[in-house]
Write a structure and sequence with these properties.
Number of domains: 1
Shape: rod-shaped
Structural class: mainly alpha
Largest sheet: none
Distance between the termini: 64 Å
Radius of gyration: 35 Å
CATH topology: Helix Hairpins
Length: 161
């Protein structure tokens, strides 16, 4: 969690600090969710790749067996299993596509949360800059008053001598 760095010692606190903190929490949560979505998409893609690889290997075995001669039952079994593998590949592709859509939505959500945090952070920085400027101005004024008093006292000392 972000510390409250936008409150000076002499200045009033940043009024939107609770919103800044909440925005940071929401961005952290969106980041965590996006990480999970990306991991899920990668996992689904890996499963799809494995299914495709297995289907290709099985197709190769079928072609090799067919080249050596297959009976009608073995031919039907290979064809049936290849059909089931094709269905599994289509289903896995659908899952990957849906996962990609969820990841894209998660990225948009993350970007939105990051934009909100940046806006509040910018306001907080401006608040701090104004507070720093006011504090510097006050210090300058106090320094000038001190120097003027010192000058007056020095002149009084000179006139007394």
């Amino acid at each position: 969690m972000r510390s409250n760095r936008y409150t000076g010692t002499m200045s009033k606190p940043f009024q939107l600090q609770p919103l800044l903190d909440l925005s940071q929490l929401r961005l952290d949560e969106a980041t965590r969710q996006l990480g999970q979505l990306i991991a899920g998409e990668q996992e689904a893609s890996q499963r799809l790749d494995l299914l495709i690889q297995y289907r290709e290997e099985y197709q190769g075995r079928f072609l090799a067996a067919a080249a050596n001669g297959l009976g009608p039952d073995a031919w039907r079994n290979y064809q049936h299993f290849l059909g089931r593998l094709d269905d599994a590949v289509k289903q896995a592709q659908t899952i990957v596509d849906a996962s990609k859509q969820r990841t894209a939505a998660g990225q948009r959500n993350w970007l939105d949360k990051r934009g909100r945090l940046k806006a509040f952070d910018t306001l907080a920085q401006r608040h701090q800059q104004r507070a720093d400027h006011a504090e510097a101005k006050l210090e300058q004024k106090l320094g000038d008053e001190h120097a003027a008093r010192r000058f007056r006292l020095d002149r009084e000392d000179e006139t007394v001598e």
